Amino acid sequence: MYNGISWDDMCLVHAITEAGTLSGASRALGVSHPTIFRRLNALENKMNVRFFNRARNGYTATAAAEEVFKLFITVQNEVHIVERRIAGRDLRPSGTVRLTTTDSLLYGWLAPVLAEFRRAYQDIKLEVVVSNNVLNLTRREADLAVRPMSVPTGFLSSKKIGTISQAVYGTTSLLQRVQDDTGLSDLNWIGPDDAIPYPVLQHWMEEMGYDRNCIYRTNSVLDMFVAAKSGIGLSALPSYLADCSPDLIKCGEEIPWLATDLWLITHPDLRKTERIRVLFDFIMASDFNISGS
């Protein structure tokens, strides 16, 4: 009978190491605090080694726990590789595809595309994760990602959908106060906060002097759009989103500095999975005008 370290043992050590407390590990694993305590004692008795130093402020991993923690990461990565390879052999156009994108892209462009896809492929279910964070495709947090970025990194399969143009927008009443471009810095502005990865826009606003009058910050481009429609201030927005709004007027030309490439990304192991392939190709074939021109 095998009496060594099991997968459950590795998960236990990993959870306690990550959380630093038994209560945190119990929440992560979805079991009770007493169960975590019993399982840890049983593991240490079985292996005849102490995995954690106990203190009032939490549990600190010993060298033994650190070794098991590294083993957990290695095994988990191998499991994900096998899962992707198995999924890649699935040639049926059915099942579930998990796609991640931003709120503004979903609202301003992607939702109608996905609706049309569902009408064409009714056996494929969609799970859409709206997030400004880049999910880990290697760990199967998502199957597909639609993201604005310069160039995708890592061993991923990606295709450029197009380039997102951007310009300054505001309401009619707000822009009536603008005599020329230099007057823009005197008006209220809407911009991204530090929670959203948008350094290009932040740097541009600082360079132009608009950052000084930024009275509304948010972690959502869609919220920037809504705030601009409400007349709170001017905002640099994607043209595909703002050009379609009757409440907003474009102020000047599109800003080359803010032009951003849009990419469709997946993992190479999943690219041949039929349900993922058909959605990938469907999005790439969409003739939606993302440039807004």
Tell me about the biggest sheet?
5 strands, mixed
* Gap between N and C termini: 69 Å
What is the chains' assembly state? single chain
> What's the β-strand tally?
12
Query: How does CATH name the architecture of the largest domain?
Result: 3-Layer(aba) Sandwich
Mean pLDDT equals 86
Percentage of residues in DSSP E strands: 15-25%
Pick out the low-confidence regions. none
Relevant CATH superfamily of the largest domain: Periplasmic binding protein-like II
C-alpha-based Rg, rounded: 25 Å
Notable features of this structure?
D-Maltodextrin-Binding Protein, domain 2; three-stranded antiparallel beta sheet; five-stranded mixed beta sheet; 41% helix; 3 domains; alpha/beta; Arc Repressor Mutant, subunit A; 293 residues
Model description:
This protein starts with 6 loop residues before the first helix and ends in an 8-residue tail after the last helix. With 293 residues, it is α/β, with parallel strands linked by helices. The chain contains ten helices and twelve strands. Strands 4-3-5-12-6 form a five-stranded mixed β-sheet, with helices on one face. A three-stranded antiparallel β-sheet has the order 10-7-11. It has a two-stranded antiparallel ribbon with strand order 1-2. The longest helix has 26 residues, at 63-88. It folds into three domains: 7-88, Orthogonal Bundle (Arc Repressor Mutant, subunit A), CATH 1.10.10; 95-164 and 260-285, D-Maltodextrin-Binding Protein, domain 2, CATH 3.40.190.10; 166-258, 3-Layer(aba) Sandwich (D-Maltodextrin-Binding Protein, domain 2), CATH 3.40.190.
